[in-house]
Amino acid sequence: TYKILLFSSISILLIALLSLNFFLSHKEKKRVEFSENYIKAKIFLENGNNNEAKSILEDLVMSNDPVYSTLSFFLILDKNLINNKNEITAMFDHILENNKYEKELKNLLIYKKALYSSSYLSEPEILKELSPLLNEKETLWKPHALFLMGDYFVSTNQNFKAKEFYLQILNTKNLHQEMYDLAQSKLIRINNVK
């Protein structure tokens, strides 16, 4: 019985090691494939073949690889390969929902989505987009979100609301001096408009 138990344990261990090796090998092959496709898309862009590049980049975005999905998406944005706002928003949502990011990187993506959408969304929609940042106490991106909302309200001539957001920036702990100075200058401009 000990021999059977020993052979069973060794067999299970061997199968587990082979499975792990196969999984890691497969994962590495996928990463190499993603890398090659990303480079291929960049070459297509350099040669003016935007449609081919767009197709490859869209596939990479949907691949759910945190690195190449994100890089591909921002290349699509940078090169204006997609002009449909709904498609861009859907890609932002896909990336955020299907990739695991560190907290601050995810918050950066949330901020970038809100920044992109701020030109066509209404006030409640922008606030909803930024709520994960605005409601969090400790994130690097909260002051940026507050600036975005303050600037949004200045652009819509709602200076009282803008002032509230700029004042929140000044009350943020461990704020970088440049951001503090910028918030103060924006408040001075609002006060001079009266």
Strands, helices and their partners?
Elements lengths: L1 H45 L3 H12 L4 H13 L6 H14 L4 H15 L5 H12 L7 H14 L3 H12 L6 H17 L1
Can you tell me about this structure?
The protein has helices spanning 2-46, 50-61, 66-78, 85-98, 103-117, 123-134, 142-155, 159-170, 177-193. The chain is built from 9 helices and no strands. The protein is mostly helical and 194 residues long.
Averaged pLDDT, please? 92
Low-pLDDT parts are none
Can you summarize the main beta sheet? none
User: Helix count, per DSSP?
Assistant: 9
Derived from helix and strand composition plus strand pairing, the structural class reads mainly alpha
Beta fraction of the residues? Answer: under 5%
Based on CA atoms alone, the radius of gyration comes out at 24 Å
The span between the termini is 90 Å
Tally of extended strands? 0
Q: Name the helix and strand elements from N-terminus to C-terminus, one letter apiece.
A: HHHHHHHHH
- Helical residues, percent: over 70%
Features:
single chain; 194 residues; mainly alpha; 79% helix; 0% strand; flat
Précis, in short:
Helices cover 79% and strands 0% of the residues. With 194 residues, the chain is mostly helical.
